[in-house]
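Checklist before submission:
- one chain only
- standard amino acids only
- sequence pasted in full

Submission:
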Amino acid sequence: MFKRNNLLLMILLLMFGLVLAACNADEPDGKEDKGEATETTDGEKEEKAASDGPKDGGTLTGAMHTAPAGMFNPIFYEEAYEANILDFTHEGLTTQNESLEFIPKLAKSWETNDDQTEITFQLEEGVKWHDGEEFTAHDVVFTYKAISDPDYVAAGGVRTNYVEPLLGYEEYANGETDEFVGVVADSDYQVTFKFEEPNIMPLYYTGFPIIPEHVFKDIPVAEIPEAAESLDAGKVIGTGPFKFTEMIEREQYILERHEDYWQGKPHLDKLVWKIVQQSVMTGLLEKGEIDFIALPGGIDPADYDMVNEYGDVTMIEQADFGYQILGFKHNHRTAEDVENGVINPDNWVPNEKIADPKVRQAIAWAIDRQGLIGEGHGQGLLHGHGELINSPIAVQFWAYDENAGTNYSYDPEKAEEMLDELGYVDVDGDGYREDPDGNEWVLNMEYPTGNQLREKSAPIIADNLDKVGIKVDLRQPKEMSVYVEGLTNDNSDWDLYLIGWSLGSGDPDPLGLWGIKDAYNFSRWNNPESDELLYDAVKAPDAFEQDYRVEKYREWQELYSEDLPALILYAQNSIWAYNDRLQGVEVLPYTMYKDAHTWWVND
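Returned file contents:
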């Protein structure tokens, strides 16, 4: 058996493999009028830029509302904020196009064998790492071997989904053998991935960003997260178009062009990330002090109409490959398991306060999700720039079934009725419900700073629950790096938590976030039926037929919405914006960071 992860994550996370299909929202009346008024001017501007052609030089400045936690190694990073650096510094063998098809990157071609147990890549030659060393197949082997290492998970690694399908993974990861046979360098420029079983999506698993063997080969995997080569500007080495050279921690992160970049020297001299409060980002964009606002978070929906009126700014709106959740902590890890870096469901401690799925369902009925989104401009936190979804699969995927999961519409009366029937009633007359044994029942809710929508959602959700007699201890929000540590360790008294996930566009498979032993299963959801359905959905030969997978995922979405490891609050539209001095942008369904070496500024 093996796992897969859509994230990327992460962070997530999340993640390099983060990927996704476009669906533009209706544009406000104001934009349509503006377009008519400025069509000639914009056309002249574009024509002038095109006639001038790309120019070398210049600095581009982007804004993030939360500082990266500080891990700049692809095999160990966890957050989308770190990914904003790594997206420009590291690359994988493949990438995706606007149709979400896999296309060449560091690999120029590939071929699978007849039974889909092997895939062989021919690599680009002449690719240089940032320090001038040459990229080879041995770097690919080293990357996957490091993720398979027996010490990887204990060191904090969460990307095992990329290696678990490989031939011999279990034996190698468990320390039963020193021979790593899952990825083999046939020559300096040919590498073969070997799978334990026929694999239905080999290009997904083989697309992870590569790290340099010559930099890390003498560092034990257990020590890589603490190594300067993973943490320090100037020491982080990739093959991407920009080098991470300087930082003022939590303030500014500077990338400089990689002069020997294999696809051609980037036009820009520098790309700078500034950490600024989300509330002031748009003002800085208008003044020209920053040039673009994109992932993660983008433009606050409340600011859409205002930014749309800026004279020299291009806006992008499309459906997001991700969602925001209210998570339920089904179980907690033990302090010993946290210390040892172990995720062992046999040791988990059930959270009795929300152990009954009907309690979780009642909470779901009590929350006004549509109220968070709003019906249109000027309403809700999202001002209509988002939609309700009922399962953790992106709506752009063929696997999403809006009718499979329960649509928890706002129904506080139903929530109250369910809680009454379960014995959660107000015994002492203080307006709050006690548990069926007559004990005080308080749900502890945690959430992070940085994302304004999430910060604003927290008290609204707490108020929704208060109205049906559920007492919530809404804790003070924590800075993201501190929050993630508590969320990951989860040997505390957390009951409810808020977080957002960016999903991978490579495949709709939800494993990696919702598998029992997956590190990102922060709810510590322990449902064997869920795992069985998810593993069956990717197991050959049946899974080669999409109809079979559709049915398995339909069953899984139904189970998810009944057992509720989390309530999906909403899928927010991605709203990005950039100053028109930036040229060469090609937007994909999941990012605007495509081919940054072709970006240039027209001053």
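Reviewer check: Residues 29-52 form the longest helix (24 residues).
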